[in-house]
Design a protein that fits this description.
globular; 325 residues; Rossmann fold; single chain
Length: 325
């Protein structure tokens, strides 16, 4: 087995970046990247952000091809919002375990149990589940979305129970019916690890994602989406932060705030499917035009309505940019 050669690895990655840049131009493509992706993937992003920002970016994308460096439900959303564009997911196995925790059969049973409840679907769900929902939400706008449902006292919130609990704490006037789903990455960090990190970095503020367990939320200084973390860290007078979300966030935060310090409280905060995407897979995706994600027919029409309602409530005028509905 050959020893690792750092110089050769850097050269290899630089050559791949050049190839990607060439292919991107040839294909009239835009590369959209989630904040949890590998460092080198974040480097090639035309647009990066959290799930809401990327949903909005997909609508505005002025390109024939969208290369979505994230997981499958994100690429599905891009296809739903852009029916006339080619949407590519570089690694077809890049899925979301939490999205798989809700099935259409179980959701229909829950609807029968609570016939007067609105269904609010976290975007971390399949197109089929979105199609069965009244409106979508992201971690950054979940509270706003639930508050906007003036005609409903009950809300079935799917699939993340931790985000649902966070919404319930902030919208006590409504009954939030929780689904037994969760993010396998965010639940890995414990309250004890947060407290240990605070001892090691006493001047640091703790910023946590609402997908974390309630006991982690209880000892955190600020709760927000990954996009919110960028805004908060930039505006805060603090110079040190403990970041309770997927470890890929640290690269972007450090790049945006070179004069500040960021720490991850646990080495276990790694999403394995987010890390499947590599420069090699992105280059292959553009070269072979694989793997195309296409949501069509009734599922596309119904899931579009749930996503479009979310974007409208969030202040994004998406309708004029979308054809086919």
């Amino acid at each position: 087995m050959k020893a690792y050669n750092k110089t050769a690895d850097i050269k290899y990655k630089e050559n791949l970046k050049k190839k990607i840049a060439r292919l991107k131009k040839e294909r009239n493509a835009v590369i959209i990247v989630h904040n949890y992706q590998r460092d080198e993937i974040q480097d090639i992003a035309d647009i990066s952000g959290d799930s809401l920002a990327l949903s909005q970016a997909a609508v505005r994308a002025d390109a024939r091809v969208i290369v979505f460096c994230g997981v499958d439900f994100m690429a599905e959303s891009a296809s739903i919002l852009n029916p006339d564009k080619i949407v590519l997911l570089p690694v077809k196995e890049a899925g979301c375990p939490m999205a798989d925790m809700v099935t259409i059969e179980r959701l229909k049973e829950k609807k029968k149990e609570y016939p007067n409840a609105a269904i609010v679907c976290y975007v971390n769900s399949s197109a089929t589940i979105k199609a069965e929902s009244d409106i979508c939400c992201t971690s950054s706008n979940a509270i706003q979305i639930v508050k906007s449902l003036k005609d409903y006292k009950e809300v079935i919130f799917i699939p993340d129970k931790n985000l649902g609990r966070y919404v319930q704490d902030n919208v006590p006037e409504k009954k939030i019916i929780l689904w037994e789903g969760f993010c396998p990455t965010h639940i890995r960090v414990s309250k004890e690890e947060i407290l240990r990190a605070k001892k090691e970095h006493p001047d640091a503020e703790v910023i946590a994602h609402p997908e974390c367990n309630p006991d982690v939320i209880s000892v955190s200084d600020h709760i927000c989406s990954t996009g919110g973390m960028f805004k908060y860290a930039k505006a805060s007078k603090s110079t040190s932060f403990i970041i309770a979300t997927e470890s890929g966030m640290l690269y972007g935060l450090k790049r945006a705030n070179p004069d500040k310090h960021f720490y991850v409280p646990s080495e276990r905060l790694v999403c394995p499917t987010m890390k499947l995407t590599t420069l090699g897979w992105v280059a292959h995706s553009l070269e072979a035009m694989e793997y195309q994600i296409k949501i069509e027919g009734e599922i596309r029409e119904r899931s579009y309505k749930a996503l479009e309602r979310m974007l409208r409530v969030s202040g994004e005028k998406s309708g004029a940019a979308i054809s086919g509905v």
